[in-house]
């Protein structure tokens, strides 16, 4: 069984869209958004996947979501059926933190032969052995200090080293200010992350926020030989579920 986020009560967040970020930006994709996360970024734009009523982890919106309206459980067969009803053959599994449900994901992906599988992860959880060999690409987004997560929870040395050594793993760091870039460069040096697999992305939930930060962030990427990524889905659809 898989625990999923919802677009509306009782409706799982399984949808077709363009990938909005990172190495596959602009590619038609089928998305599955899972619920639950082991971290708590105070700027998280999918807090409805983890900040349920009774969860006091900080978030800048200070919203608490009803678990029953924002989370549901479906069998791997049901999720696979819904995925096959959509046309894109690139599957992006996102969250929340998808790798918390690694064993169930392995069973799901086995039902979808021929699909290109990407998993979006915060980088703290090792892939389940039964899942790992079925994944074509990992989109790893380690959380910097401005996320509000303690470094001992968010930046686990053995996991960062493992991702850096895996050519399937593309790093995407969310950046709000220039001090965040210094933190990224230190991590790049420590773990020998290749620049062609390291993206900087501005933190922002509106086109105006992104535009203001993208102007200087692009210059930084050029200066340090890193890759820049926008948030295409925000420009196209806004900060909405199922997009």
From TrEMBL:
Substrate binds at residues 18-20, 33, 94. Its cofactor is [4Fe-4S] cluster; S-adenosyl-L-methionine; Mg(2+). Binds 1 [4Fe-4S] cluster. The cluster is coordinated with 3 cysteines and an exchangeable S-adenosyl-L-methionine. GO terms for molecular function: 4 iron, 4 sulfur cluster binding; carbon-nitrogen lyase activity; magnesium ion binding; S-adenosyl-L-methionine binding. One of its GO terms (biological process) is tRNA queuosine(34) biosynthetic process. [4Fe-4S] cluster binds at residues 37, 41, 44. S-adenosyl-L-methionine binds at residues 43-45, 96, 141-143. Residues 24-239 form the Radical SAM core domain. Catalyzes the complex heterocyclic radical-mediated conversion of 6-carboxy-5,6,7,8-tetrahydropterin (CPH4) to 7-carboxy-7-deazaguanine (CDG), a step common to the biosynthetic pathways of all 7-deazapurine-containing compounds. This is 7-carboxy-7-deazaguanine synthase. It comes from Novosphingobium chloroacetimidivorans.
């Amino acid at each position: 069984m898989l625990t999923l986020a919802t677009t509306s009560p009782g409706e799982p967040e399984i949808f077709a869209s363009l990938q909005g970020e990172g190495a596959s930006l602009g590619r038609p994709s089928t998305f599955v958004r899972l619920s639950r996360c082991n971290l708590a970024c105070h700027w998280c734009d999918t807090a409805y996947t983890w900040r349920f009523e009774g969860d006091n982890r900080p978030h800048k919106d200070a919203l608490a979501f009803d678990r029953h309206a924002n989370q549901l459980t479906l069998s791997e067969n049901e999720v696979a059926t819904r995925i096959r009803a959509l046309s894109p053959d690139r599957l992006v599994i996102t969250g929340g933190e998808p790798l918390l449900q690694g064993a169930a994901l392995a069973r799901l992906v086995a039902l979808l032969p021929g699909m290109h599988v990407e998993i979006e992860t915060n980088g703290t959880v090792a892939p389940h052995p039964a899942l790992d060999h079925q994944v074509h690409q990992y989109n790893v987004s380690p959380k910097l200090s401005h996320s509000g997560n303690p470094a001992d929870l968010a930046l686990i040395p053995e996991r960062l080293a493992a991702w850096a050594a895996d050519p399937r793993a593309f790093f995407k760091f969310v950046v709000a200010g220039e001090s965040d870039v210094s933190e990224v460069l230190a991590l790049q040096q420590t773990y020998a992350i290749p620049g062609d697999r390291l993206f900087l992305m501005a933190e922002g939930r509106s086109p105006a926020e992104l535009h203001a930060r993208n102007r200087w962030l692009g210059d930084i990427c050029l200066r340090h030989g890193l890759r820049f990524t926008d948030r295409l889905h925000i420009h196209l659809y806004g900060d909405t579920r199922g997009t």
